[in-house]
Design brief:
The complex is a heterodimer of chains A (114) and B (115).
Chain A lengths: L3 E4 L2 E4 L4 E8 L5 E7 L6 E7 L2 E5 L6 E7 L2 E7 L7 E8 L9 E2 L3 E5 L1
Parallel strand pairs in A: 2-11
Antiparallel strand pairs in A: 1-3, 3-8, 4-5, 4-9, 5-6, 7-8, 9-10, 9-11
Chain B lengths: L8 E5 L4 E6 L7 E8 L6 E6 L4 E2 L4 E4 L5 E6 L8 E9 L16 E6 L1
Parallel strand pairs in B: 1-9
Antiparallel strand pairs in B: 2-7, 3-4, 3-8, 5-6, 6-7, 8-9
Classes of the chains: A mainly beta (114), B mainly beta (115).
Chain lengths: 114, 115
């Protein structure tokens, strides 16, 4: 199993809603990542977890709250988002040592904030 | 973070080789050179990575200049499925550096493959 599964594939939410994006992998990877990608732009790194601990936060606004409950699961909790937060949110995983080895990406969750 | 420079776009014909260049003149000794690609409506996909020596795998070859200031991704026979955005990325493996662990995407090269 070499897949990173993201749910939901599409999400529409209002600015006052609270929602979550979910990412799951069963490759035994110990590093997991969230990226944000706007249309026709490269992915931008948001957060990195290594061994279930947050190791990188790229100064992301607090309305995005990551959570890594176990080594297979990564969540991104969303609250009070703005329309400009509409984007494709990509999850990725890699083996434990952060700088070595390839990242496996999911297909993304497309978020629309109204 | 050390940056990479790639052409905005390139075109190729099907079944011909493609050479995608990348300049990284400020690369440090602790940076690996990674290549990813992103097909339309998909997440990025790992292609290849290397440190100093040329590398080959089933997807592509990576040629690294002796001074490491540039590299070239080689697709030996392009297919229509290879049409994608190709990203050349430097990834630090020095745990003491501020960019350790980050995989930071640049603008990439849009590759168009003609039948």
């Amino acid at each position: 199993d070499t897949e990173v599964t993201q749910t939901p594939k599409h999400l529409v939410m209002g600015m006052t809603n609270k929602k979550s994006l979910k990412c799951e992998q069963h490759m035994g990877h110990r590093a997991m990542y969230w990226y944000k990608q706007k249309a026709k732009k490269p992915p931008e790194l948001m957060f990195v977890y290594s061994y279930e601990k947050l190791s990188i936060n790229e100064s992301v606004p607090s309305r995005f709250s990551p959570e890594c409950p176990n080594s297979s699961l990564l969540n991104l909790h969303l609250h009070a988002l703005q329309p400009e937060d509409s984007a494709l949110y990509l999850c990725a995983s890699s083996q434990g040592r952060l700088a070595i080895g390839e990242l496996f990406f999911g297909e993304g969750s497309r978020l629309t904030v109204l | 973070d050390a940056k990479t420079t790639q052409p905005n776009s390139m075109e190729s014909n099907e079944e011909e080789p493609v050479h995608l260049p990348c300049n990284h003149s400020t690369i440090s000794g602790t940076d690996y050179i990674h290549w990813y690609r992103q097909l339309p409506s998909q997440g990025p996909e790992y292609v290849i990575h290397g440190l100093t020596s040329n590398v080959n795998n089933r997807m592509a070859s990576l040629a690294i200049a002796e001074d490491r200031k540039s590299s070239t991704l080689i697709l030996h026979r392009a297919t229509l499925r290879d049409a994608a955005v190709y990203y050349c990325i430097l990834r630090a493996y020095n745990a003491g550096g501020t960019s350790y662990g980050k995989l930071t995407f640049g603008q990439g090269t849009i590759l168009t493959v003609h039948p």
